[in-house]
Predict the structure of Nicotinamidase.
Amino acid sequence: MKALVLVDVQNDFMPGGKLAVPKGDEIVPVINSIQSKFDLIVATQDWHPENHISFANNHLGKEEFDTIQVEGITQVLWPAHCVQDSKGADFHKDLNTAKIEAIFRKGTNPRIDSYSGFYDNAHLKSTGLSGYLKEKGVSEVYFCGLATDICVYYTLKDAIAEGFTSYLIEDASKPLDVEEYEKIKKVILDLGGKIIQSNNL
Ligand code: VGL
Ligand code: ZN
């Protein structure tokens, strides 16, 4: 069984959004065109309460992109984004959502961020995604979405640790920071992840 996981294909990560990924919207037609190749499609949504710890405006005297320590982990302070039930948290309007069988929401705990679709950043709580995929008999998982160097990366890393054969579909994803992504690519390959293009599916 082959599953496709759409990571955070949400308005706030698109050009014009609160935490825009350059050319983030270009992945939408690519994702729509590959959905038919998979047995199962699921999605994640970044889904923060207003008082979320990752928002710079919740820390007096801090600026956007400053860092703080949370649970011994370095936390970047982001512009407020993907607030629960806001327009910015919706999927991009052109994303074909008809075949998405389940949506896993993350970053809902105000005290801890969650880049991965599987666990929060301190691995305190599971979203249930791993158990869901295993229950469905999935062995190969393909990841795409936004941002490649943050949420797609952390999700893929957890998938490898959970024992899934894990693929990044590079052209169906876009990084926030291109230089950071170049470093991360090597880590993905070293961990045993695979990087492919949509036309090789
Ligand atoms: C993301 C930063 C903060 C992402 C989510 O989806 O890559 N990045 N929250
Ligand atoms: Zn977030």
